[in-house]
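Hi U.,

Before I forget, here's the chain from the pilot set. I'm dumping it here mostly so it's searchable later in email.
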Amino acid sequence: MADSSNTFDVLVLGGGPGGYVAAIRAAQLGFRTVCVEMDKTLGGTCVNVGCIPSKALLESSHHYEFMAHDATAHGIALNDLRIDVAQMLQRKTDVVAQNTKGIEFLFRKNKITWAKGRGELRGGNVVDVTGADGAVTSYQARDVIIATGSTPIELPFLKFDEDRVLSNVGALLIPEVPRHLIVIGGGVIGLELGSVWRRLGAKVTVIELLPAILPGMDADVVKEADKVFRKQGLEIRTGTKVTGGGRSDAGVYVDVEKDGATERIEGDRVLVSVGRRPATLGVDVATLGLQVGKRGEILVDDQQRTNLPNVYAIGDCTPGPMLAHKAEEEGVVAAEVIAGQSSHTHHRTVPGVVYTWPEIAVVGLTEAQVSESGREYKTGKFPFSANGRARTAGMTTGFIKFVSDAHTDEILGCHMIGPNVSELIPEVVLAMEYRGSSEDIAITVHAHPTLAETTKEAALAVLGRSIHI
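Structure:
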């Protein structure tokens, strides 16, 4: 049993995006809060080996590609352009450090205790924390929030060694531009990290089992993305099954099969990005009697409550999209529910973004999903090629598409592919939160010239009255 100095109102198990935000919100609400995290830094996968470092490398590689291929169109001549991979990786590391140190500052500011070590949840909301020196400290809390995240899925014949067979962790640490990077999985992680090394000069082959890349996204966006990525130089093989693989003298090999034909693909390294699974490290669900789903995800209601009293769960270890911002919002809800507030979560308006170039941003239902539901709908689409700001920037690829109810005009979904669309999607998310219509966006004044005018024009297109096309 924990002594009085280790007794808290709220204990958060996990210091990733969901966990650290839950801890901060709990502290803001006046609770004595402790967050258990075994890694050397706070921030979890997202800040340390996911969202933040990958975007740092995407940004650096984007600058290089612009200088190598697009600067001359702007009247900028560059000579002796070269890549310093070591400096690029160091900048990525520095950016990560800025973020992790920022979280530590927020913990100090909000008087949150960081219990450093591996936590083990026991009955009665006791958590035993084993530190780096092997010493065990017990913490007692009235309420516990489980935020243990997720882990990448391995293939049985391609176990991660983070040298030749890479997860998202190893793909951020490649010390030189590979000659040939094989990417298994045509989803978000595979395409983003594949794009980094393709821009820097690597041959990149993307292998996807399903008939198209970006499973689950709107068909029009997928079609455009596939065309653009192939034009950029990604070799994309869809409908292709990986049947084996391993290390070779050259690096790695992957055996594939399509339409009965087999082939062996050789490369320097292979990135396995076939998905992630919920992680419940430190949580013995069977012993505790915690209800879980088929994938091992902890089942919760719309207030993040589990079936155990005073135990909540958030983020990747629960159902729903595995996204940092989804975890953050769930963390806020859990803390506020503990405080007696009537907060609720729903995933209807959780946006998703792919940080390739062009970017992809989506929210709500795809056209196919609406069609399959039998609901009558209408669509509107507007290309960036007809947008003045996009033309000035030389970034005219892509479009914005709305799917709205045919009778009420309520926005059911929005699907974007184009420049900086990650910054354009929040406008639509806000409208959907208020069950807004395409007309609501269409009659809203947008500054000129801006990329956001494309959103307005796409909304006008739903009404059949786009101005600039």
